[in-house]
Design goal:
By secondary structure, this protein is of the alpha/beta class. The protein folds into 2 domains: 241 residues, 4-Layer Sandwich (Metallo-beta-lactamase, Chain A), CATH 3.60.15; 145 residues, Flavodoxin domain (Rossmann fold, 3-Layer(aba) Sandwich), CATH 3.40.50.360. The chain contains 12 helices and 23 strands. The strands form 5 sheets. It has a 7-stranded mixed beta sheet. Helix 1 links the parallel strand 8 and strand 9. Helix 6 runs antiparallel to helix 7 and helix 8 packs across helix 12. The structure holds MU-OXO-diiron. The site of MU-OXO-diiron (FEO) has 8 residues, from helix 2.
Amino acid sequence: MIKKIPQLRPNLFYVGVNDRKKALFENIWPIESGVAYNSYLITDEKTALIDTVDSNMIMDYLATVQQCLNGKTLDYVIINHMEPDHCGGIQIIKKYYPEVKIVGNKKTFEILHNFYGIEDGLLEVKEGEELSLGVHTLKFFMAPMVHWPEVMMTYELKDHTLFTADAFGSFGTLDGGITDEELNLSFYEDEFIRYYSNIVGKFSNPVQAVLKKFKSMPIKMVASTHGPIFKKHDNIWKLFSLYDKLSRNETDTGVVIAFASMYGNTEAMADVIARELSEQGIVNIKIYDVSKTHPSYIIRDIFKYKGLILGSSTYNLDLHPNMEALVSKLEGIGIKNHIYGCFGTYSWAGKAAKKLEEFGHRTGWDMVGPTIEEKGSLKIEKFTECVAMAYAMAEKLKQ
Ligand code: FEO
């Protein structure tokens, strides 16, 4: 099988693969539009792969690498990130190229040993160290916790390419086009934010540290392990600005209302709140039924907008299980800097609204209240409280 292999720069090739079969990334996050595992090959006096791909795509990947090497041997594999969607191919690569040196840091090799039992052929690098391939020289920068503790980024000094591991990645396959010069980026806009919020969002301080590290360095290409590759100066600037904004938990004016409703009473309260928000001039309002929309998409919008209002019916004297799932993920990610309100309904014993209020206290967010809990269908007293909560939320957002 012969492939068309995209060339990104002289001696730099894209050898990544598209995964259109997997339903859930990390077996958690939906990827209807698939995902790309990006990998790069530099063919200088020495040859080097930058990351590999998921093991389920490995034979396709190996054939591409072999075609691109065109009979040359492989000298180095740089492991920027040990998560198996990027190092799943390492055993096969080592089998086919037994002399290859695996380049990583101390933490990389701990995980490499634990996952694959590999202990030989390793070349350990530290912050700022360089590796010459001939014309190209690679310089290594540690980026701990820009998803995992061993993550590092590789900077190519001749063409100023930054290989960023998961940072600046996106869901969605690369369908023909690979770079921002070839793609319509509008498709990826929401997927960038969903990827950030779902995968990297918990690690905002490490992202800020990395942004500072590269602030004054010339970068002419950003090559992540997922999604489009950026070559245009304006797009690289926008990408760094977006990551800066997201990692500072800076949001736009708007409100996400997510509800869990069994018989429509909780949803009715959500609609009243949304209508009042609109009447108060809030334009960005997104209502989600947590039993229909996966938390992945709701979390994406919570990263976009400052206001969040959660509503849940009581189920078995607790939160509705689907709201519990959302709340649990939000607590895990630890997103900051929101304005929050909550409400609920019950049939014979209330609990959900109280649970949502406790969640709000744990987050440390700015809360608008009081918490509203209705018995059965919405009646005038709680209707008035819903209107008041929406009004208070709108006022805070306008400040
Ligand atoms: Fe794409 Fe953290 O792996």
